[in-house]
Amino acid sequence: MRGIITSFLSVLIVSVIWSCKEDSSELTREDEERSIISAYLDSMDLADIAAEDTSGIYAYPIISNPSGKSQNEGNVLSIFYKISVLGGQTIDVYDSLDGDTIVVKQGAGAIYPVGIDRALAYLQEGETWGFVLPSHLAYGSYSYSTLIPEHSIILAELSLLKIRSESQVLDDELQAINRYVEDQELRDTVSNPYNQPEFLPNGMVYKRLSPGSGPYPSQDSTVSITYESNYLNGVVVHRAPAAAPFEFVIGGAQVISGLESGVLKMQQGEEALLIIPSYLAYRESAQVIPPFPEIYEDLVELEVVPAYSSRIAPYRPLVFEIDLINVN
Length: 328
Known about the structure:
This protein has about 325 residues and is α+β, with helices and mostly antiparallel strands. About 25% of the residues lie in helices and about 25% in strands. The chain contains six helices and 16 strands.
């Protein structure tokens, strides 16, 4: 049955495209896509429940939860999704089988495609909605392998599992950081010398691992460091090894604020551990759906998303092990 429906839809969509071309040579792509979407909705008996908004997104509820928390209480969303090309393949499914939800900040320009960002605004906690995204709100002229042809109309099924404010996110992160300190036995100076961890007022944790003997950096100092950064689960995010130390100017807005704050506490020659909550790191970062590395690379090259977003997921505390090798 599914194959029959797919074949029927393919014939229907092709017929609509050709009829549009015959009716008017001046029809825009948006006009043609609107006709294709209308035909699809009719074929799926969704025409009476799917509403088009002013941007061109078509939305319809699948699972409603009128008593669910609304996004007036926060816009950090934990979601699952399924996305497909209309008349084509399933691009990606992210659901409970994948473990953790995807966490995004809605309405901050931090989700790609932009149509998914706008679509998420419809949902209350506990709801699932279906959406049809015209190509200009999906991937536009971008194409990826055979999965996403250029100017694809996208079907998205989005589930909103949890809504939090950024203050609630910070509270959750501080609890996770405290658990990390306990689990890693960072207070045990025999197993983990040198000093006890210091819990800073801004939520960071600073622990000296070995002492230095040189100057402390100050505003406008140029410092050179080597480091390894990780998530709390141990996944390595980035490295600057001894063969290629990283240099930056204190106060030059060249690094995340948490890294700069931590380095200011260090002495030249010192090795230290810094644990940084996300609000002092990359906050909401930028979430690409689907989060395929090749798509991130393409979008970074096209300057659609920042380079760090390919490494740093939204709202992730970071652990830095740092050597401060030079202060000028």
